Amino acid sequence: MRTAINGLSASLGKNPSLVQGPGGNVSWKDGARLHVKASGTWLADALDRDIFVSLSLPDVHARMARGEYAFAVDGGPGQSLRASIETALHALLPHRVVVHVHPVDVIARSVREGAQAAFASLMEGLDWVWIDYAKPGEPLARAMQRASDAMGRAPDVWVLANHGLVVGADDPERAWRVVEEIGSRVAVAPRRAPLQPNLERLRPWLDAGYRLPREPIAHALALDPLATETAQSRWVLYPDQAVFLGGAGLFDPGEGPDARQVHPLGPVVIVPDAGVVVADGVNPACEAMLVCYSEVLLRCGSAEDIVSLTDDEISEIVNWDAEAFRRQIAR
Ligand SMILES: [Zn+2]
């Protein structure tokens, strides 16, 4: 099981359309043990190092029965890593293998008005349920518990609004097949966007300690008008975007680095009609999230049809200690 889980984790983690940076998690249940990805580790590393922590499943269930749903600080005796912030979610599903990913296509479809009805037809025949947006960690696990209680059982597939996907299965192979099946059902063709930055206009930023992003797709945020409009008017569409790109976007209206005085937030600067720059020293998780955000926006239409996170929901995420830990250890 362990070898197959590592293979599944690495395959998921190395696919940027499913998992970005340290996002997503995998678990398996082995008798009385729950093995779950450690917070801040990358699924992509599963074949190279041990990314899992092991917890007593009866203990986790007992704590949940007492209303304790937050396990991020307890990786178990002798373990330096913290269990995933989504540990309760993994424990509440009865499936032996549980996979949680952030597929670009699922995010793009789930942020649209009327998304639940659209998924209902796309997912026909699958054992699935829709979960309205809830903050990751305890609120999300509680929302899933309520849905499960209402249905009288835990379905195999959970579509999380403005977030991603959870799949439960008997074994790693089945989990992979279900993720693939959903991927082919919900695939959205991205708009083709111009990706050539205007270096002359970006020069003031490049001379001020910023650099071009590694992946040219990020320039879509500045060069695709619909993407720029949505980023400007909506910004945060899903939790990991706020964690790794900041709770507010920084748009240079043409003043160059002086704009930092006005909007001191964010490791990424979007210069409309010119391109995108990132602060020198941003971590790979930030770059991975920049690619994901661009891919999501190229799969969304007009900003009016998009449901973003509210200011309260954003501040719950950016001011959350467990996420600060994940950001801090991001490689
Ligand atoms: Zn997630």
Automatic annotation (TrEMBL):
Residues 4-190 form the Class II aldolase/adducin N-terminal domain. Pfam families: Aldolase_II. It comes from the Bacteria. InterPro entries: Aldolase_II/adducin_N, Aldolase_II/adducin_N_sf. This is Class II aldolase/adducin family protein.
